């Protein structure tokens, strides 16, 4: 008898282990932040020290637990998992991916709309950077506070222990998360299993809490007790912190593993924990001191504190890595200075280390810990950045969906109205906490937004003035060809880095006009960062002989994706000899950089304070030799001055 094997089943079986590995890996990177929210969310809602306290009554408890479950359902499951993650930029997600899609897909004639939405996207990225300062502080602090439950005598040590843990975490960033990352997934898998089991144990004490799964309780609480429910939302939003990570890290694991991990493990585990804590509070309101940790029996509370601390460190790592990615992408797209980016893994492109961002975050996070001293105090500041980023992501998604999808307009408009209304409700309630800490992430976000937009505008002005100073490349080369006796040819290959093909590299112009020499082989090279994450090798180069294939002067344009390392010598080795008019002697080539010294001037285009901000930001720009992977012993820098 002949057996026929279904090829799809074979493929399915082959992919299953890989998909399972990706899901476990995603647990350690993607879900750390949102997966540790049950530690502090419900406790914060009923915090008696809140400026707008929510009374702990049976009706309020049912309403709050229902609000938490359905807020997570609408924002995380619907907005991100079911909708936003279907909008990707060559597999990459996140708000910067939406910005690049907006640039690519925006219809002509909608300039004002595109400018406004682009500004919103940059603001969303800036708010995410603010969130990356608060998340490590509140996450680790909330876990270490569990020591007060297992051993009240350690209360005074909570803040110092938290600061030490965070200090070590930031000091270890330069080594990368590749080795430790293999432990993240299993630890978070254990974490979700434990909080699910503890949640079920809590539910058994009062199974009636399961009624909170009905949306009628959330709606009834909002409609019938709006004056209470409105302020409760300021803490309920803590349950969705980390939602952006699901989207931002999509390029590392793919949409399907993240979706499966969320729907079948993370969401159920978090929901069970919230329900279990609710049942515990129904049984005895005194459990409000630490409902999450009190779900565990006395003998297991210290172990739970250790596991929670490990989980929050992982959550912090995920947010820090996200900040590195956002900063690197913003730099690649021209919204931040060129930053030094170190890739810490040879196999995983997403594992990067940005030193300047790391040290800035370290100082900021530890300062927040000592300034606020408790997770409850930090919670007042936490929600503002999260809700702002979520709202902007939702708006951008529906605008792009309207441009590209064939879904009927009334369906998209209906969905947009519902989801944006929910998001704006969270934004509005967090604004009521403005004087109690919500000003902090707004201030951080607005400061980052100002820096990013100022850098973009300053780059435009500098580029225009540099173009004027450099002059036409075509005319310069034609002049060389018509007057060959004016310059001497010296042996070797010279590579001049230049922004584009329209203008002459300042270093080349100076070499010809003042030294009266040129090399036998001259490569004028421009490096472009594309709005896609990665490029295939066949799309890497464009070569132009500038009208004469025999004089040894070539223009080469090389392109990199915005998450790739722009290693110029390595890229040039893959340039086909037939395109470069013969093999290049890259082992002995000399690289010329045109250094621009910026000075503040009276030219129009920017306010004086923005010029000073741009000049200050320019000092953190990474060295071009390191950034482009150039051999330092064969780099010559020639300078020029430009006034801003």
From TrEMBL:
* Residue ranges occupied by any K+ potassium transporter integral membrane domain in the UniProt entry: 23-478
Where it sits in the cell: the answer is: Cell membrane; Membrane
State the UniProt keywords alphabetically. Answer: Cell membrane, Ion transport, Membrane, Potassium, Potassium transport, Symport, Transmembrane, Transmembrane helix, Transport
Query: Per the record, what are the reactions this protein catalyses?
Result: K(+)(in) + H(+)(in) = K(+)(out) + H(+)(out)
Annotated membrane topology is: Multi-pass membrane protein
| Key word Ion transport present | yes
Q: Which residues cross the membrane?
A: 20-41, 61-83, 113-134, 154-172, 184-204, 224-248, 260-282, 302-331, 352-372, 378-401, 410-431, 437-455
Q: What is its main location?
A: membrane
All copies of the K+ potassium transporter C-terminal domain together span 491-644
Tree of life domain: Bacteria
Q: Does the keyword Cell inner membrane apply?
A: no
List the HAMAP family: Kup (MF_01522)
Described by its record, this protein's role is as follows: Transport of potassium into the cell. Likely operates as a K(+):H(+) symporter.
As for family, the record states:
Belongs to the HAK/KUP transporter (TC 2.A.72) family.
Per its record, how is this protein called by name?
Answer: Probable potassium transport system protein Kup
What lineage does UniProt assign to this protein's organism? Answer: Bacteria, Bacillati, Actinomycetota, Actinomycetes, Micrococcales
